[in-house]
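As noted in the main text, all predictions were made from sequence alone. Below is one such record, for Haloacid dehalogenase-like hydrolase domain-containing protein 3.
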Amino acid sequence: MARRLQLKLLTWDVKDTLLRLRHPVGEEYAAKARAHGLEVEAAALGQAFGRAYRAQSHSFPSYGLSRGLTSRQWWLDVVLQTFHQAGIRDAQAVAPIADQLYEDFSSSRTWQVLEGAEATLRGCRKRGLRLAVVSNFDRRLEDILAGLGLQEHFEFVLTSEAAGWPKPDPRIFHEALRLAQVEPAVAAHIGDSYQCDYKGARAVGMHSFLVAGPEPLDPAVKDSVPQEHILPSLSHLLPALDRLEGSPPGL
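Prediction:
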């Protein structure tokens, strides 16, 4: 008779898995600009932010620590580049906006806990699972989680800034497993990114679940992920764990 799988550790992505911004980035940036006397369309700022963030992540991965940056400097530059691409070229005018935005996004008031997150975390702990965070976030994450009352659920919070590698780099998952002192076969990761979370965790031998969210999944992703690994919402996790632990090891 096959030995029944018993998971020991669940690692969690955070942004758009447990938390989300209360307002879209473009709206937050536009509101702060308006408070400083600058009128910029939220849609233009939202699009510019996406381009600036991707370029900065490519040029200075893991918040540029290996290149001598701090995560604060990294983010301030993203804000400056966002406004520049949206047509505001005056860096001196944008600098105080960037400082304020960095502080605002450090505050739990800017974030909200997704529906079902608190109950799901409590349910996981009730069944004896250890919980930890593995997130492509910076040093502000622990304070944000504490401010929202979620940090108490986690044994540790491992960010890409602290680890030096962003998901899906296998080293950040290996570091989480080392910190927890568990084997990948008895660990699972939960997140909303197919590449960073689902595939990244499975590449090191962990189980993983993909949080689908409100938007339809890309058909190619949907075809690549077994239905039992897709979570339409966080409330689907505990039943999915029951199914996983009831299957033979290795599935």
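The first strand starts at residue 9 and ends at 12. The chain has two domains: 9-18+114-246, 21-110. These features were considered when defining construct boundaries for the mutagenesis experiments described in Section 2.9.
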